[in-house]
Design goal:
By secondary structure, this protein is α/β, with parallel strands linked by helices. It is built from eight helices and seven strands, in the order βαβαβαβαβαβααβα. The radius of gyration is 18 Å and the shape is globular.
């Protein structure tokens, strides 16, 4: 029997990248997966892949930057399944104009809502279901920029992802007595469609050396399948060929 048989997992940003890979991995382990994102078509493609492999998936499109929309999806999950065992808080976005000299109030709002507010809304929505069962795991995709502010990722994205890290640890601080665990993953560069928003294009060769969506999907599945007494609080994960390290190594040595 697969390790997650009978579990219900809600995956956000499930139409592509890490979310899609996580949904497929969780379904492979027996979980029924609820797929959410803004666009219905990519979610249906993910669902078709899961169902073709014999898994179970339900498509629930929503704009996760709106608390009411998140509440409606959570209510549907509770009504249909009576439980949500796993939340994969993966939805996120970035914008090209991310430098302080280019960033607008509207751009900052979009990035913060898309990465932080949406994660708060989803976490708040599933916690009541988890408290009833005295069990549940929340897995949030932050970023290495959520630990080290990055000019590459931009101020708004770095700030939002720092917020996701703090949010996850705060959940453990309060909800551990209810059998609920929260894990935050901070990946370095991952070859996902969000790279297309970079001001400087990333080559196919560079993407090939990065973490792949499937690497993160496998990690998320591993965390979800850990026994209830284990909480993997935070994970830093990077490609072996780490472009940040490589850039440092290529700098001329400073003479003392």
């Amino acid at each position: 029997m697969a390790s997650l048989t009978g579990k219900v997992a809600w995956v956000t940003g499930a139409g592509s990248g890490i979310g899609q890979a996580a949904a497929i991995a969780l379904a492979k382990e027996g979980a029924t997966v609820v797929l959410t994102g803004r666009r219905k078509e990519p979610l249906e493609e993910t669902a078709a892949t899961i169902k073709k492999a014999g898994g179970k998936a339900v498509v629930k499109p929503a704009d996760l930057m709106k608390a009411a929309a998140v509440g409606r999806v959570a209510k549907d999950i509770d009504k249909k399944f009576g439980r949500c065992d796993i939340l994969v808080n993966n939805a996120g976005l970035n914008i090209p104009d991310r430098k302080w000299s280019e960033l607008t109030a509207a751009g900052a709002e979009m990035v913060i809502d898309g990465n932080l507010s949406s994660a708060f809304y989803c976490s708040s929505a599933v916690l009541p279901m988890m408290r009833k069962r005295k069990d549940g795991v929340l897995i949030h995709t932050s970023s290495m920029a959520g630990r080290n502010p990055s000019t590459l990722s931009g101020a708004a994205y770095s700030a939002a992802k720092h917020g996701v890290v703090a949010m996850s640890h705060s959940i453990n601080g309060e909800e551990c007595v209810n059998g609920i665990r929260s894990s935050v993953i901070c990946p370095a560069e991952v070859a996902t469609p969000i790279l297309d928003k970079r001001p400087v294009p990333v080559s196919a060769e560079e993407r090939g050396r990065m973490l792949q969506s499937e690497d993160l999907g496998d990690l998320i599945c591993y965390i979800a399948a850990l026994p209830p007494h284990v909480c993997l609080n935070e994970v830093l994960i990077s490609p072996t060929w780490n472009r940040g390290y490589v850039a440092t190594l290529q700098q001329p040595h400073l003479k003392v």
